[in-house]
Amino acid sequence: MIPPLRLLGLVWAEIRANRTRTAGMVACIAIAVTTFTLVVQLSVTAREGVADTVERTQGSLGTIRVTASGAAAEAILTATAPIPGGPPSGRIMGLFDANLSVGGAPTAARFAAADPGVIDVLPIRMKLGRWLTPADEDLLAVVAVLTSTTARDLSAHAQTPEAALLGRDITVEGPQPLTVHVVGVLDDCPLQRFQTSPNTVFVAFQSGQPRAALSIGSAIASRKVPAQVQMYLSAPTDPDAAQSSARTAVTTRLQSLGTPRPTVEVERIDTADNFTAATRALALILTVIGGICLIVGATGVTTVSLMSVRERTKELALRRATGARPRTLFALVLAENTAILTLGGVFGVVTAAALAAIANAPWAPSLGGFAIAPLSLSTAAIAEAASILVGVGAGLLPAWKARRLPVIEALRL
Amino acid sequence: MTGAALCLDHCAHAFPQPDGTFKTVLRDMSLRVDPGESVAIIGRSGSGKSTLLTILGLLRPVQTGSYLVDGKDTRDFSETALASLRAETFGFIFQDFLLMARHSVRANIELPLTTSSTDLWRDRRKRVDQLLDRVGLSGSANVRPNRLSGGEQQRVAIARSLVHHPRVVLADEPTGSLDPATGDLVIETLLQAARTEGVTLLVVTHDPQIASRMDRIARIEEGCAVERWPATAEPLP
Fold it and tell me: What is the pLDDT of residue A399?
């Protein structure tokens, strides 16, 4: 086999002898690699952006919700023995339907008797005031946190409804009207993603004593049975396994409590998972688009390379006639293509890095929310590796043609 | 360096035709060439001179009969082994020079060394300089062949055929594209270089003057070789 250094020398001589063709091939693949790199970087940016958004808006990953209604809900709240995976490791909310008012027309709302610790697993973001604490579990002085939607409904005419309600008392309609004191207003947008009504009033019940929630429900809404009970479990390490074991545990427990066919839903509610899947799909699509760009570039290079082999038929045949082995010609043409595509890859990556840097420069014009992260070393490595790989792939056919060259016909002897 | 012994024995060669038949060019060709000998191969157009040369140069396989190079039967050789034997044994000179137009004269001469030689770069360079000097083209190493005259181009081809120290040089009508005066100069250069290098020389030619300068003449007639030696300038029957 021809020594690598000599092969490089031959490749260099060939590149020098065909500057125009080489420049064209390098430019072709550089454009393809630039596009590929930018597209891959875009997918990386999207992935990082989504992960960041999820972290900020969706709370911890691996949140599982157990939703029970009817008899099952009552069974959960009246359970004397702890439910496996339930409080205190799980966080419970008993949801009751009620009407609220602040001296005017009543507003339908959902009343949530919530374990204050639920803030650890739900994406609750305070807009004003504070969240509930265990100290708020005194039924004699019920304090509440409203969603901003509820605040706006109750105080529609105020300029700043949330601020107007903070520190005020609201009335919960019913046979025994109850007054609750508003201590905080929270952003309800993240809650919507959790399929919890935006019109919700949160009050506290004592952690680990689910019966307290029922008491609150009875006191506030005059209902012994909550419309729904939600229990939140946090299993960031293996959410899928936790989901499965929670389903089994809760169902078994409810059956032992005399609910033969409990209506229980156990589901992952951290939409991070959905986001991640969507981003993964987006990244895949973008990578495929980038890959298509590379393939188009490689097709161009293969075509030019085939033309080059055809153009150099006599020269290659002459090499064969003077003792070059078929595999030497194969290696020569393959090395030429690989070298050209590697060079094109370097130019492409450098161009992509420059474009990404320009897009991130402080003086760069705004791209209307479009963002691309500065080129990472891993993306650059992937792009360069891809161009080398494509170079080898694109060179195979021309190299094979060179290997199979009929010497006599080519030299017209 | 001494030339190689070539022995072609009862060789026949035929080319397939579009109508499915075969056209026989060589019928019962036997030719023996001793090391260091110079042989002219003559014959009418289409008599199979070039075909014979390509068989001798291992560019074409032997269809029937046998062909021995230094006693080794080439029929048993693989394609790779044939390439190796070709690289170490043969140098070629073609009628239309077959130089690489996009490369310099130096690169053209160096061609046989680039893929098969194990010499170091400086040894190869020294060898090319030596041959450039021998064929009188010392000042043209870095120019492209198309800047040279026909005679100069053929001298480049002669240098290329000798650069890798072959033991046999096969020349296919080396003066066919040149005027008589230039042709004489080229043949003189070739003979001188072949003598200096001690190689066996086989030249296909139509020119009796050139044929007469060889040790022996082999005329191809009816697909067979009719030999005559020592060579003379007289026209052959």
Answer: 92
Interface contact flag, B83 A407, Cβ < 8 Å: no
Residues in chain A with CB shorter than 8 Å from the CB of B54 are: 408, 413
Contacts of A326 in chain B (CB under 8 A): 79-80, 83
Give chain A positions within 8 Å (CB) of B160: 322
Residue numbers of A between 6 and 25 with CB closer than 8 Å to B: 6, 9-10, 13, 17-18
Q: Tell me what the mean pLDDT of segment A286-314 comes to.
A: 87
Residues A262 and A139 in one domain: yes
Statement to judge: residues A187 and A332 lie in one domain? no
CA distances from B8 to A53, B13, B47, B224 (A): 83, 12, 17, 11
Pick the CATH number of B6-228 from 3.40.50.300, 3.90.1150.10, 6.10.140.1580, 2.60.40.10: 3.40.50.300
Scan for tokens 């429900």, then name that residue.
A217
Task: Answer yes or no: do A163 and A214 share one domain.
Answer: yes
Domain count, chain A: 2
Which residue range(s) make up the domain with A288? 4-56+275-411
Residue that terminates a domain, selected from A238, A270, A302: A270
Segment B1-31, tens digit of pLDDT: 555 688 988 888 888 888 888 888 888 888 8
Q: Token pair of A244, please?
A: 């499965």
Question: Do the chains contact at B98 and A411, CB–CB below 8 Å?
Answer: yes
CA–CA distance from B181 to each of A78, A114, A201, A260 (Å)?
120, 112, 113, 116
**Cβ B115–A322 below 8 Å, yes or no?**
yes
Which residue type does A234 have? Answer: S
Q: Are A324 and B115 within 8 A, CB to CB?
A: yes
Q: Which of A245, A270, A295 is the last residue of a domain?
A: A270
Dihedral, CA atoms, A39, A42, A47, A51, nearest 10 degrees? Answer: 180
Put simply, the answer to whether A326 touches B79 (Cβ < 8 Å) is yes
The CA distance from A296 to A309, in Å, is 20
Do both A240 and A327 map to the same domain?
no
Out of A84-98, A140-154, B145-159, which region has the weakest mean confidence (pLDDT)?
A: A84-98
Nearest to A323 among B83, B98, B121 (CB): B83
